[in-house]
Amino acid sequence: MTTPKGSKKPVTGNRFKAEKAAEQRQRQSGSRPDGVFDLDDDINGYRRKRASIDGVQKHNYDGNISFDTADKLGEEIAALRTRK
Amino acid sequence: MADPVTVATSVSSEGWTTRDWLYLTGVVISFMSAGITVFSARMTLKRDNNSLGDSEIKIFEHITACESKLVDFNVGLKKEADKGGEGYRIDNADDMKLQFLIECVLNAYDIACQRYIDGKLDKQRFSKTYSARISKVCNSALYRPVISTSGLHHYSALSKVNSELNDPEK
């Protein structure tokens, strides 16, 4: 079988498997060519990080609101209120 | 003996009758109306989600406005306390205003919790967004005395939701 000059060789079954395996190895090793961004991989990595050691996802409090400064000030005012 | 006349042979031999065309039109209209129903259901769902989102934003704005008023007042008190030193005491009028502002904040959270209990909010989103905050409010040195000293059924939605979201035994 001939291929036109400059075109890619047809991907045979074995070559396809080899490419997939290489891709998998690269993904597992964590190294990635510069400028390549794999959204799925990043999300899965984030999920793995969020999960506990036993793999069970713990409560995700990322969406919580907070008024920490107001709370700190409130504690001081509460202490003032209790002063008699 | 003649071959039995099947539907296929009758159609191919005689062509489509008016009744066939009417049947076909009915089927096409049915498919079109099914498509329109699915589409309008999707749009309704989307609109409902949007209105839920608007409602959540309004609740957050209300809570933030109340918290901001309380912080403004607390800043004034803190400045006076810093000037007055150890001998500073909050006077009665300021204490009453502080009490009122604390009640406003608690009312804002209570209203949000009532909507949560009534299922008028996305429960999962509410739980993710407010569970830790509600726990903090219910255990804060500023708010807790007001919650515990108010009437039996005051802020009951707040207490109930706090128990539901933050009680490890539930």
Structure description:
The complex is a heterodimer of chains A (84) and B (170). Chain A is 52% helix and 0% strand. Chain A is mostly helical. Chain A is rod-shaped. Chain B is mainly α. Chain B has a domain at 51-166. Chain B contains 6 helices and no strands. Chain B has helices at 7-14, 18-84, 92-117, 123-139, 144-149, 156-166. The longest helix of chain B is centred in the first third of the chain and has 67 residues, at 18-84. Chain B starts with 6 loop residues before the first helix and ends with a helix. Classes of the chains: A mainly alpha (84), B mainly alpha (170). The interface between A and B is medium-sized, with 22 and 27 residues.
Please outline the helices and strands.
The complex is a heterodimer of chains A (84) and B (170).
Chain A: H1 13-29, H2 39-50, H3 68-82
Chain B: H1 7-14, H2 18-84, H3 92-117, H4 123-139, H5 144-149, H6 156-166
Helix pairs in contact in B: 2-3, 3-6, 4-6
Beta fraction of chain A? under 5%
Uncertain ranges of chain A: 52-57
Number of strands of chain A: 0
What integer is the average pLDDT of chain B? 89
Q: Tell me the radius of gyration of chain A.
A: 27 Å
- Distance N to C terminus of chain A: 97 Å
Question: Largest sheet of chain B at a glance?
Answer: none
How much strand of chain B?
A: under 5%
Largest interface: A-B, 22 and 27 residues
Uncertain segments of chain B: none
Succession of helices and strands of chain B: HHHHHH
Shape of chain B: elongated
Q: Indicate the multimeric state.
A: heterodimer
Task: Kindly list the characteristics that best describe this protein.
heterodimer, A: 84 residues, 3 helices, B: 170 residues, mainly alpha, 79% helix, elongated
In short:
With 84 residues, chain A is mainly α. Helix content of chain A is 52%, strand content 0%.
